[in-house]
Amino acid sequence: MDNQPYKMTLSLNLLNHLGINLYSSVPAVLSEVVANSWDADAELVTITIDSDKIVITDDGNGMAKNDINNRYLSIGYQRRNVPDGSITPKYQRKVMGRKGIGKLSLFSIARNITIYSVKDGEKNGFQMLLADIEKKIQQEESTYYPAELNDFPPDLTRGTRIILRDLKKRQRQTPAALRKQLARRFSILTAKRFAKIRARGNSGLEVSLTLGGTPQYR
Q1: 159 within 8 A of 112, measured Cβ to Cβ
Q2: Which 3 state secondary structure label does DSSP give 70?
Q3: Running DSSP on this structure, what letter comes out for residue 102?
Q4: Rounded to an integer, what distance in angstroms lies between the CA atom of residue 29 and that of residue 31?
Q5: Does residue 179 sit in helix, strand or coil?
Q6: For residues 209 and 63, what is the distance between their CA atoms, to the nearest angstrom?
Q7: Which of 104, 131, 165, 202 has its CA at 20 to 30 Å from residue 17's CA atom?
Q8: Fold for the domain defined by 8-42+53-168
Q9: pTM for the structure as a whole
C-alpha cells in the first residue's frame, strides 16, 4: 500500500479517547477547527451548518500533500516543537493547536470527513470514514489510508475546506446560542467577532468569522 497518497497511523485507544470521546458538542469541535484556521493565518472562516452536514472553509495557507501526511494526519504532531513553530509565519500569531489531537475531535460529531486543501496551486482532497478506521483497528492494523478525491471544488482557490457528513445527532443550534458558545470557548476572539452568525433560510446556519491579520497577542 506504499503507493497510497495519504497515510494515518493510529491506535484504538487513542482514537476512542482523543477522537470519538473527545467532545460532545458542536461548538467545542468547531472551536478546534477555528483554532487550526487561526494557526494557518486565515483571515476568514465560514461555517455552514445544515441538518445533514457541516462545512467549514477558511482562506488560510492551505496544505500540500507533505503537510497533510506529516502534520495533519500525524496524530500527536506538535507544531510548537518545530523551530519557530509557536508563531505563525504571516501574521505572527501565537499558535493555538493542541498537540495535534484537535483534528480527531471531528469524529466526535461526524462519521464521514472530507477535506480539500490548496497550497501554492497544489490541490489535494481526501476522505476519512470512521467505520473504515475502526475496521482497520479491529484487524490490529495501525495504518489507515484515507481515500484520495479528485473532484476538487472549483470555488476553493485558497485555504482548506472540511465537510462533515453522517452527523451523529441532529443540529439544533440557533444563531444566538452558537455565537455565545463559540465566543466562550474560543476565548481569543471577542463576542463581536462572532456577530455574523445568521440563519440561512430554513436549512441551517451560516457563520462568518473574521479573524483579521493583526496579531492578537504574542
Answers
A1: no
A2: helix
A3: G
A4: 5
A5: helix
A6: 20
A7: 165
A8: Heat Shock Protein 90 (3.30.565)
A9: 0.84
